[in-house]
Amino acid sequence: MAFTGSLTQSDVWKALQAHHQSIEHEHMRDMFAANPSRFEQFHIDAAGLSLDYSKNRINDDTMKLLFKLARQQNLTTHIAAMFSGEKVNGSEGRPALHTALRNFGDRDIMVDGENIMPEVRDTVRRMEEFCWKIRRNQWRGYSNKTFTDVVSIGIGGSFLGPKLASSALKPYWDSRLSIHYLANIDGSHITEILKRLDPATTLFIIQSKSFTTQETLKNANACRQWFLDNGGEEHDLAKHFTAVSSNIEKATAFGIAEENIFPMWDWVGGRYSLWSAIGLPLALAIGIDNFRELLRGAYAMDEHFRTAPLEHNMPVIMALLGIWYVNFFGVNSHAILPYDHYLRSLPAHLQQVDMESNGKSVTTDGNKVDYQTGPVIWGGVGTNGQHAFHQLLHQGTHFSPCDFIMPMCSHNPIDNFHAMLVSNCLSQSQALLQGKSEDEAVAELVAAGMNQAEAIVLAPQKVIPGNRPSNTLYFPKSSPQIIGALIALYEHKVAAQGMIWGINSFDQWGVELGKQLGNKVLTALESSAIPEGFDGSTNGLIRAFQQMQNY
Length: 551
Ligand code: F6P
Description:
isomerase, 22 helices
């Protein structure tokens, strides 16, 4: 029988609150001392990834209660609804079917009475043909030169996913092609990209589901003009400009030949679109076979998420751990710490996946939530962060759970670099767990030659509380399959959290507001009239912009 009451008034929520009080002051040092098999107990493997979640402030009872919460919120039913194509994005009346894009099974997936799988597969075949023509030099630029550069123009989900996967899979790149990502509306960025390129050997991919996004259209028009001003002719545009969009009309009006437009569908959200033709620049870089392997990795994670029992379900476990900290410890941020140069764009992508999805404060039935939802996602690549923001992780007044992410083997095994990198990763999570007591700090200072009295005065500065939770997510080596599974893992973690919180993780009305307001402000900036109609601060800033135009 489905639970329909208030989440925070439910017995299981109250039991979790009581359990939190009982465990709050327990130190993980003691938990590890008491249970030598904690690593084996709180550990799961799925789709080529391994998760050690033993360094969390949990015990058996915690996990039992969290799984009970998931059951109360009908998580399994919600997961099935998402995969089957139900309109889980209620505010836009759409399904969220990014999983169909990597469905290697033989399940038909129906949207409005139509099986979408043939079109999905046909699009991958078109991508294959396109990649084949470009990479084998069958499709050339206007002067018959082969392409050397691809500029992908798009923003948000039409940028972050492909950018992440491209950098994550750099070892698989075809060295003859350079891929550039142009997202921000910033004259400096476009200038820096185009100044190094030759129009005759440059291919543009305009990536916009809506084909109405201000930044993308501005950048696309500027690239088009640059192409025409530097040797290209109108009739050459078709050879150099392609698009990925669900808005065929607008894309053709821009001048893209219809056969060069790859489809997007409104049942794929922007932040989940890497798996569609939005992945085209990536497919060009790594080849369609590797792109398919990426899809296969995501599919393996999909099947795990869809079929594994909650207790043995990696995305569900990560979702519940997040909920444990957000809702019962009052934590409001979560750090993503990849120990891999190639994964340096992961925090930025996950910021969109998580914060655009779960940055919501109203439930799907329109009620204001009385509990916290998605945390602030932040992070950066290790070990750089250790010499910067890790200070707050270790000694700040509040704690931020961390995900340490690392491949056990490097694509570039020079000397003992990788062992050093891994040792940094492991010792950071260990230090967050262990901390340093006042007695230990005193003993350390005395051992270093300080007298006891001075050591006692200095020691409080050196105390590290420890008991700060982290996950360690590891895998043998980055590969297309592993990266596919990793990205899908986080997509599902976020979706599962949204399902438990009862919010719609698939719309983004707050972001849409920014799109509307941006246009109004632009009109005011470009006029010389005294700005009015905005708040006093915005009026003042518009005026300042107008006055500073002669610098
Ligand atoms: O940033 C908001 C958003 O709607 C994202 O969800 C999307 O990925 C991005 O804008 C770009 O939109 P489009 O692909 O339509 O240009």
